[in-house]
Amino acid sequence: IGLLKAEKQPSSGHRQYNDQDVLTLQKIVSFKFLGYSLEQIGKMMKESSFNSNLNDTLQKQKKAFEQKKEQIETTLNAINRTIELIAGEGEVDSPVLMSLINSMQIEKDQRLCVEQHISKDVADQLFNKPKEELVALDKEFIQLSKEVKRLMGKSVHDPEVQELVDKHMKATFEFVGEEAIYAMQDLEDLEKEKLENMFSSPYTKEEEEWLNQAMEYYMIQNGMYTPKVD
């Protein structure tokens, strides 16, 4: 867009740069380094000095780069967790892996949702986990999904089904904590639905219904839940 214009040497036709051209090039490179577009640089090149207006645009640039940095860190964390999962498991079903990656991608939104509908303390308890715990939970989730698909169709009263639910519930209580579990149970139906929609599921509708029935039966049998009677 003509930010740097050099004169041609008459005898050779080569471009010839003077000290002012070098200074102009330095300005272009500096502004480009700070993340400005060529169009923005073109306007700024006309300024002989800079005041608070430049500071305002730098603040905007800073905010934009901080957002990019956060996005890059989120992506790198997701990549590292996925690498570790596949290395440990050898093979992971596509719906399960996509569900996990999606959950990692929108973790910030999930956290805000938990803060709004439950509490910040519960959100901290859920999301301020060390990497090792998160990977362990991912592996637990993968194993659960495998067993759900294997046992799907069996009676929810079946001992093997209830053993699976028992193992899963204990792992959930250990990771999530009783406070968060009971806080979620006390939510209004609309709030609960909004929160549940924030967490991607790898299951089909039929598998979801079957698993919910199995978990409900488990909770009734263990005095954790009493069905409402109309």
UniProtKB/TrEMBL annotation:
Q: Which domain of life is it from?
A: Bacteria
**Record-linked InterPro entries:** DNA-bd_dom_put_sf, MerR-type_HTH_dom, MerR_fam, TipAS_dom
Q: From the Swiss-Prot or TrEMBL record, what is one GO molecular function term?
A: DNA binding
Instruction: Give the matching Pfam families.
Output: MerR_1 (PF13411), TipAS (PF07739)
Keywords on this record?
Answer: Coiled coil, DNA-binding
**Record CDD domains:** HTH_TipAL-Mta (cd01106)
Positions the record marks as coiled coil are 51-82
Which source organism does the UniProt entry give? Bacillus wiedmannii
Which Gene3D superfamilies would you find in this protein's record? 1.10.1660.10, 6.10.250.360
Q: Ranges for the HTH merR-type domain?
A: 1-47
PROSITE patterns on file? HTH_MERR_2
Name of the protein described by the UniProt record: MerR family transcriptional regulator
